[in-house]
Structure formats: structure tokens, C-alpha cells
Amino acid sequence: MIAGHFGFAAFVKSRERQAPLWALMLATVWLDIVFVPLFLAGVETIEPLTGARGSYGTGIIYADYTHSLVGSTLLSVLLGLAAGARWGRRTGAVVGLVAFSHWVLDLVVHRADMPLLPANAGGLPRFGFGLWRSPIASATVEIALVAVGAWTYWRATREITLAAGQGRHRAALVTALILIGGTVVLVVDFTGTVS
User: Fold this and answer.
1) pTM score, two decimals?
2) Which region, left, alpha or beta, applies to residue 63 given φ > 0 means left and ψ of -120 to 50 means alpha?
3) Domain segments of the chain: what residues?
4) pLDDT tens-digit series, residues 67-94
5) Which pLDDT band holds residue 106 (cuts at 50, 70, 90)?
6) Residues 6 or more apart from 174 whose CB is under 8 A from it?
């Protein structure tokens, strides 16, 4: 769901113009950024599904700290506080909520591998609606998120540049980068070109 996360960040930027786009892009993948060192250390793991092809949603992800409801909430609050110290309370809240949106979007696509508590304390049921079981449906949702994010970002940026009497080149360039980057990430992920 990487491309979809970036599309959502672009959508939020179109509404919250004071928040830096790079900070929103970072926030939307913050849980995965923290996941990487834990994965490399063997603390969080991915188990490939038997018989699954490609790499798009073909594993059970045991990100029991970063992607637990409580863990993702704490990580989102920490990032929001850091952003708030830099850009003010409103932007901090927006960055924190965008970071938490990662968990919400992952809930839609993940199989039931997302725990409520870190380390799945108490052995409570895991959650995930499992849209990844249908790669075409999940890719469609991601493409829609990227397209809506790029379009709303372009409209907002175009409005600002026209009001300031500037050209539309920056808006068009960033929008193109969002669309192309999101599409490339989705295609690579969907086809399993990179393991």
C-alpha cells in the first residue's frame, strides 16, 4: 500500500497547505520506516504465503510493535509532537494523524496480522480486512488514492500559483512526479520485480 499512502499524503497537502509535503510523505510511511530496522533485527517478520506469486500482499506481516494499534498510535504521537515543535500545533496534529492513517489504510489491505497491543500481548485477535487477497481490487484502491491525491494536490497548487501570478510549472511537475512515482511503486510491488 506504499503508493496509496503517498497519494493520501498528497491529498492531505491539498487541504493543509501549511504542512510541508515532504513531512506528510514521511509521515505516511513513518510506521514502515520504524519497521525496517526492527525487521532487519528479526524483531518483526514477514512470512511468505505458500503458493503466492509476486510480492504484492503475498505475506503475513508480523509487525507486532510498529503496526499494532497501540504501537502505531504511540509512534504517530511522537512524530506529531516533533512536527509540532517545528511547525506549530496544527501542523503537528496533521502530521501525527497522517502517520496514523498508515495503520487505517493497512487495516483495509492486510490479512488478519495487525495486533491491538505491541507484541500481541494477551494473544488478542489480530485485525485486517484482507483486500490483498484480491490483488486487482487492492491495486485499484491504490491507483485511486494516487490519482485523487495527485489531482487534489494539482488543483490546490494551481490555485495558489495562479493567485500569485506565477506559472503552473511547479504544480504540474510535482503532480506528474506523484502520479509517475506512485504508478512505478505500485507496478514494481504488484509484479514482484523487487524482492
Assistant:
1) 0.84
2) beta
3) 2-191
4) 999 999 999 999 999 999 999 999 999 9
5) very high
6) 21, 153, 154, 157
